[in-house]
Amino acid sequence: MMRIEDIIDLDTHPLAQAGFGTRCDAILDDEGVLVLENFIRPAALAAILAESKAKQEEAYFCAQSHSVYLTPDDPAYPEDHPANRKVVSSKGCICDDVVAATSPLRTLYDDRTFRDFVARVTGQTELHPYADPLSSINIHYANRGQELGWHFDNSSFAITLLIQKPDAGSRFEYVKGLRDADANEMNYDGVDAVLQGTLQPRVLTMEPGTLVLFRGRNSMHRVTPNESDKTRMLAVLAYNSEVGVELSENARMTFYGRLS
């Protein structure tokens, strides 16, 4: 099993140093996204890639039609209204219980220094794994033509690690602060402008080994279709601010195809 210093480049990213955390916190608050390039050391990234390729045949693939808000249809509006207009997301996923106990991803996820850094930067008192056996660590796969449609996240932040980058397509696009979910301000006009292409998003470029913290609750975002035969592979590390939180059974069946 790799040690955490063999996985994270702690010289470039000194997670335990207060000053580094303060700078990262400021960037995340200002930009809505924190990009830590070359976060994972090459040998650890190679091990994660090898594991991801070996487990890909176990991935559950699905395609879903959903609104940008990830909510049921609102009968108060027509089908083509931004509240109800449908986009498509399609991907494969393997779950936490498929990720090996010796995987660098698990060592990273469980490491106290890393978890404390994420908590400090995102403003959480503490972070805990999901109580269900599937949701804490996921690896996502996008083959040619697969994409994530425009949406807002339900969670306040997301942590992703790019494992393999396709040769074309799969651009991460986002519009920061397009709505205010806490104030119930959905900004339908702004969402419509993005869907119509009259409001242009930012494009976030990244290379394999890059860790990204993203505030997607109020920032509309998508991943464009993969335009190559090289699979996009991405790890998602998910925590909760409270103990005992499970992803709902409906969500697990939708995204994973199973409950346990």
UniProtKB/TrEMBL annotation:
Which PROSITE patterns did the record assign? FE2OG_OXY (PS51471)
* Alphabetical list of Pfam families matching this protein: HalD (PF23169)
Q: Which residues form the Fe2OG dioxygenase domain?
A: 132-241
Query: Which SUPFAM superfamilies does the UniProt record give?
Result: Clavaminate synthase-like
What keywords are annotated for this sequence in UniProt? Iron, Metal-binding, Oxidoreductase
Q: Which GO terms describe its molecular function?
A: metal ion binding; oxidoreductase activity
Q: Which Gene3D superfamilies match?
A: q2cbj1_9rhob like domain
Give the family this protein belongs to, as stated in its UniProt record: Belongs to the iron/ascorbate-dependent oxidoreductase family.
Protein name according to UniProt: Fe2OG dioxygenase domain-containing protein
